Amino acid sequence: MGVHWTCATPRQHPEIERYNPTEETIKWDKLYNEAEELLKVNSNLFDDSIRNKVVRKILKETYPNLPEGYETNNLPLAAELNQHCKEFVYWSGTDVILGEELLKMLDDPTQKRFLLKPQWRCIKLVSEPGTIIGAEVQNLMENEVLVIKAKTYVLAAGAVLTPQILFNSGIRPPVLGQYLCEQPMTFCQIVLLQSIVDDIGKRVKRMKLALNPDDPIPIPIDDPPPQCWIPVSEGRPWHCQVHRDAFSYGGVTPNVDNRLIVDLRWFGRIEPKKENCVTFSDKYTDAFGMPQPTFNFEMTKKDAERQHEMLEDMLKCAAALGGFLPGSEPSFMEPGLALHITGTTRMGEKNDGESVVDTYSKVWGYDNLYIGSCGVIPTGTACNPTLTAVALAIRACKKILRNSQPRK
Fold first, then answer.
1. Distance of alpha carbon 404 from its chain centroid, rounded?
2. Cα separations (Å) of 94 from 2, 120, 152, 390?
3. Tens-digit pLDDT profile for residues 100-118
4. Of the residues 42, 243, 340, 368, which is catalytic?
5. Model's pTM, two decimal places?
6. Is 390 strand, coil or helix?
7. For the chain, what is the radius of gyration of the CA atoms?
8. Which 3 state secondary structure label does DSSP give 400?
9. Active-site option among 42, 168, 276, 384
10. Which 8-state DSSP code applies to residue 144?
11. Banded model confidence at residue 190, pLDDT cuts 50, 70, 90
12. Which residue, among 267, 272, 275, has the nearest Cα to 296 in the 3D structure?
């Protein structure tokens, strides 16, 4: 998310997607509330968009029987409108999470409490039985290696590089890299029906909005794009986004008016499977000198059938909105494109060899090592996993803070 993410921040479905331990309670609503506040999540960002209103209305008519609470709605987004110019959106990133106080600290060269080291990377952790005593890091600009010592270590390098660093450190729980889950994804782009464009034109006329008299398209040039969402629900284990986004595969050529285009992205859910995994080599290394990763992934027959049902559902939605933009007809996207990998450092209640971390994201067998990553999510998920990963990270941070308090 430090470079490019959709900022879509839905909550997982409480039964279909969410992890619910049997012997303790994770206070999901409270954690989600805190994560949404941290990320500045907003579900009404594009309420004033004419296209958003029209597209949402069509989706509600196309899917009239969705369960209560899981109807078509605005896509929750980690973003805020610019208060000085409503046409601009400030999308949440690392700076928003850090907040003004920490950002000011970074600008103060005299303080040593909080530092960010760009162009540094963690190579491995140094350990003694049951505890981490140092993190070996490399300064890429000067090609020097240092060891950083701390009381508590949080490894947060993503769902692939995190297990890679653990493997390189000799920390190799039995299921490290296993139970890898990724979201099958279908995609197409739609040119809005003329009847929909005409309806938008009538709304614009009623609202007495100014249009360029030479513009053949009756949509204000500054009208925000639609950002609609059909959540995961019973009988529909897929997450649906009807919107416009900035990914390269969703770009349009200059001779196509962007106001007429909507993107359809359907994300599927698969069941966690031990054989789906990323493994690391003791013999071969990648371009950075780290253990070479190899991915093994195959859907079950049931999962594959479900993804075809998902594609059929996307076609139903597409038919209600318009025709396919040439070159962006419905297709399954290449595996891994969603970048929503989970399970590689999965969470569990017991140290029984079937999980890497406990329910507070602490690595089994180590008293001061925690994981912050989508990789700790142990369930199959169709919706964007960022909000859930942040919620679990908040839970881990509270545990770390409690453990750091001096005992009375």
1. 30
2. 6, 17, 21, 12
3. 999 999 989 898 888 898 9
4. 340
5. 0.94
6. helix
7. 23
8. helix
9. 384
10. E
11. very high
12. 275
CB 93, CB 2: distance < 8 Å: yes
- Has residue 129 got a pLDDT over 80? yes
How far apart CA 339 and CA 335 sit, in angstroms, is: 9
Other C-beta atoms lying within 10 Å of the C-beta of residue 172: 14
Beta strands at 322-324 and 185-192: parallel, antiparallel or unpaired: antiparallel
Cβ-in-10-Å burial (0-12, 13-18, 19+) of 7 comes to buried
Tens digit of each residue's pLDDT (9 = 90 or more) over 251-298: 777 788 999 999 999 999 999 999 999 999 999 999 999 999 999 999
| H or E element that contains 60 | helix 50-62
In this model, does residue 324 exceed pLDDT 90? yes
pLDDT at 338 over 90: no
Query: Given CA atoms 21, 22, 23, 24 in this order, what sign does their dihedral have?
Result: positive
Q: What is the pLDDT of residues 349-363, one digit of tens each?
A: 999 999 999 999 999
Amino acid identity of residue 310, one-letter, is M
| Count of C-beta atoms within a 10 Å radius of residue 223 | 18
> Smallest Cα–Cα separation from 307: which of 328, 327, 335?
335
Residue 2: which pLDDT band, with cuts at 50, 70 and 90? low
Q: What is the pLDDT of residue 7?
A: 92
Q: How far apart are the first and last CA of the chain?
A: 40
CA angle at 96 for the pair 91 and 100, rounded to the nearest 5°: 140
Q: Map tokens 């949404």 to a residue.
A: 36
384 is catalytic: yes
Annotated catalytic, 308? Answer: no
